[in-house]
Design a protein that fits this description.
By secondary structure, the chain is an alpha/beta fold. The protein is 27% helix and 23% strand. Strands 2-3-4-5 form a four-stranded parallel β-sheet. The chain has a three-stranded mixed β-sheet with strand order 1-7-6, with no helix packed on it. The longest helix has 18 residues. It is globular and about 55 Å long. The chain starts with a strand and ends with a strand.
């Protein structure tokens, strides 16, 4: 009875901001073997060295140093569930920027952290370009999500966040079932 997410790839008019926000595969460096470049292997080398700046090491005070990294842009992302849902915060949405987020998993852990995840989406989204639109696709019905939706509706509109109903249906071949069609 949980809605499914269908993604299709139809040609649509892309905004200039959308084109700039597409994720790109890393390119191989000049020192990579010619065989890797000739075979079309676009993966980053495993032997890439990190700068010895101490990033990621424990500081004397025991706190981790913040490592600045550019955001990743996606068309569709699933918000982590189960015990990983507890780690979804504002920083997650600052770094993982998606046109559509699917929030699934009707479990007691996610229900307990639902409000925090949804507030983190709005907090993280405020750091994006103002013309970026986001669609949140829940696959289940939640009292916490209903309350959040009603309490933050004006802020959602300001930030360009659209929440689809969890009771969305799609009709295909004379049959209707719970799902959501997403086109890119």
């Amino acid at each position: 009875d949980t809605p499914k997410v269908l993604a299709s790839s139809s040609k649509t008019k892309a905004s200039s901001a959308g084109l700039a926000e597409k994720a790109r595969l890393p390119t191989l460096g000049r020192n990579e073997p010619a065989a890797s470049r000739a075979s079309g292997d676009a993966r980053a080398p495993l032997t890439t060295r990190r700068p010895l700046s101490g990033a990621g090491r424990q500081s004397p005070a025991g706190a981790k140093a913040a490592v600045p990294c550019p955001p990743v842009y996606l068309e569709l992302a699933y918000i982590p569930g189960a015990t990983s849902a507890q780690k979804v915060d504002e920083d997650f949405f600052r770094r993982i920027r998606s046109q559509c987020y699917v929030i699934s998993g009707e479990d007691h852990i996610k229900e307990g952290v639902m409000r925090g995840i949804l507030d983190a989406l709005l907090s993280g989204k405020q750091h994006w370009a103002s013309d970026s639109q986001v669609t949140l696709i829940p696959t289940f019905d939640s009292q916490a999500m209903h309350e959040w939706y009603l309490e933050t509706l004006e802020r959602q509109r300001e930030l360009g966040v659209t929440v689809l109903g969890s009771t969305s249906t799609v009709a295909m071949q004379d049959e209707s079932f719970p799902a959501c069609k997403v086109e890119f």
